[in-house]
Amino acid sequence: MKRESSPNYLNGVPELLVLRLLKEREMYGYELVQAIRDATGEAIVLGEGVIYPMLHLLEREGALQSRRQTVAGRSRIYYTLTPAGEKRLTQAATAWTRIHDAVTSVLGVSARG
């Protein structure tokens, strides 16, 4: 059975994860792909085709800022959270918590499963 890399129910989750990870430290795109995979125990695997467009959109919307740096002969764009991005993270985390709690309530299970 082929595993879907970004199921529909994950709508909004990639952005939430990216913002949360960038709150901790600046990262470049592929580093974020790996960090999400590692942080979720490979439960969420997002490809570069999801991450890079999202980073560009978040930067255009003012949630992120970027800087270019050459590392080992390769040019990388590092992203950091802006104050607007921190606000967006707080809003996204609050919304996700509400959704999680509502689904957990409907399923009739404790928050820990």
From TrEMBL:
Q: Which Pfam families match?
A: PadR
- Domain named Transcription regulator PadR N-terminal: residues: 18-90
Source domain of life = Bacteria
Q: What is this protein called?
A: PadR family transcriptional regulator
